[in-house]
Amino acid sequence: MADKAVATVSKPVMRGLLHNVIKRNLIVAIVLSTACGFSYKFFVGNVRKQKYAEFYRTYDAEKEFEEMRKKGLFQSC
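Predicted structure:
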């Protein structure tokens, strides 16, 4: 009965361990950076692009110029 209670521990894999760990970490880093890049593009970049498009769609340069001129911001006008 005492023989069955003792378990043998398998040897750790040491050959190529650093190579396998680096390969796994590199794959995880590439996947996470790609996911972060796409999420930033969709949640920040596209929203910012839409806001700029909306601003320039309704922007009137002549009206802004007249408002600045009335406020006295230009010395020559």
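Summary: The chain has three helices and no strands.
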